[in-house]
Design goal:
Blueprint: H1 2-21, E1 30-40, E2 42-43, E3 45-50, E4 56-59, E5 62-63, E6 66-74, E7 76-87, E8 96-101, E9 108-111, E10 116-127, E11 130-136, H2 139-149, H3 151-156, E12 159-161, H4 169-181
Parallel strand pairs: 1-10, 10-12
Antiparallel strand pairs: 1-6, 2-5, 3-4, 3-7, 7-8, 7-9, 10-11
Length: about 180
């Protein structure tokens, strides 16, 4: 019985490792983006919009939680576009969908092709019907999470700052962690 348990554990672990290491290849005009969101309060969805009709991504729902993922995106400029919320019930016939258009806040970044692009931390804080929305530069925290949860991307791609292209902190961070690891 113990041998069977260990065998199942090994098979399950190996399948998770294989999933973690599989990186979809990039086309010449694509890059990877580190998308990080944090919500203090509830939101149904957060929309990110790039150029073109179909270049839109939606994340959520988030309820006092964080969401971090690495996704493949066409190169170009992206803007956090809107935050949506639903209230009521479809079954009771009073479903109401509302949204905040946040495109005017200019929460944007640029994806470079062939790179792993740090896009900042999208922060949503709700207090009743009011909301504060901003993008924070939390490079060291997000890079540490990247090292732990998505090491295969950091090993394969150069990391660039899609928020502030002239910021050299990512290079400093990577050089410091390599020296500490030696």
């Amino acid at each position: 019985m113990k041998a069977l348990f260990i065998f199942i554990l090994l098979v399950f672990s190996n399948s998770l490792l294989a999933e973690q290491q599989a990186i979809e290849p990039l086309d010449a005009d694509e890059g990877y983006a580190i998308i990080a969101l944090y919500s203090k309060g509830y939101t149904e969805s957060i929309a990110l919009k790039g150029s073109g009709l179909t270049n839109k991504y939606t994340f959520g729902p988030l309820n006092h939680s964080q969401h971090i993922e690495v996704i493949k995106m066409p190169a170009g400029r992206y803007t956090w576009d809107r935050v949506s919320e639903r209230t009521g019930s479809l079954a009771q016939g009073n479903l109401l969908e509302s949204y905040m258009d946040i495109a005017d806040l200019d929460l944007s970044f640029t994806i470079e092709p062939g790179k792993l692009n740090y896009t900042g931390l999208f922060m949503l804080e709700r207090l009743g019907s009011k909301a504060t929305i901003r993008v924070l530069n939390r490079t060291s925290i997000i890079l540490k999470i990247l090292e732990q949860d998505f090491p295969q991307y950091a090993e394969k791609f150069d990391i660039v700052n899609a928020l502030y292209p002239n910021d050299h902190y990512i290079d400093f961070y990577l050089n410091h962690t390599q020296k500490v690891g030696e």
